[in-house]
Write a structure and sequence with these properties.
alpha+beta; Aspartate Aminotransferase, domain 1; YjbR-like_sf; Phosphoribosylglycinamide formyltransferase; YjbR/MT2646/Rv2570-like
Length: about 130
C-alpha cells in the first residue's frame, strides 16, 4: 500500500471525515470544515509529507523524538501543526510498523483537535 493510500485509509476511517483537494493537495476535513490533515508534496522541498493539526505541545514532542521524520511545517507550524515525512526509509519492518502506528496517532490527534465533541464521543464509543 502506498503512503498516500495509508493516509487516506487512516483519515477516512474517522467519523464523518471527508477528502477533497485544498491548495492542490489531497486534504481531509471533518464535516465541511475544518481541515485536519493535508498531503504536502510540492512545497519546494521534493518531499512527501503530511501536515496535521495537533494538540498543544504535540508538535514539540514529536519533533524532539525524531527530527528526521517529524518537522514544523511552513505556514501552519506557527499554529502548532506537525509535519510528518512519509518518504524516510525504514531500517527494518519493525521500525516501519512503529512509524505507521505513530502516523495513525498523529492523524487521530489531528482529528480530535478539530472535530466537534459529538464526533469525538462517537469515535470513543466506536473504539470500545
Amino acid at each position: 500500500m502506498t503512503a498516500s493510500a495509508r493516509i487516506r485509509a487512516l483519515a477516512l476511517a474517522l467519523p464523518e471525515a471527508t477528502e477533497r483537494v485544498s491548495h492542490g493537495e489531497s486534504s481531509w476535513f471533518v464535516r465541511k470544515a475544518p481541515q485536519f490533515v493535508t498531503m504536502a508534496d510540492h512545497h519546494h522541498d521534493d518531499r512527501l509529507a503530511i501536515w496535521a493539526a495537533a494538540p498543544p505541545g504535540a508538535q514539540t514532542d514529536w519533533v524532539s523524538r525524531d527530527p528526521t521524520r517529524f518537522f514544523v511545517p511552513p505556514y501552519v507550524g506557527g499554529r502548532g501543526w506537525i509535519g510528518v515525512y512519509l518518504d524516510v526509509p525504514s531500517a527494518d519492518e519493525t521500525e516501519d510498523e512503529k512509524f505507521w502506528n505513530d502516523v495513525a496517532d498523529v492523524v487521530e490527534d489531528a482529528y480530535r483537535t478539530v472535530a466537534p465533541k459529538t464526533l469525538i464521543r462517537k469515535l470513543d464509543e466506536d473504539s470500545r
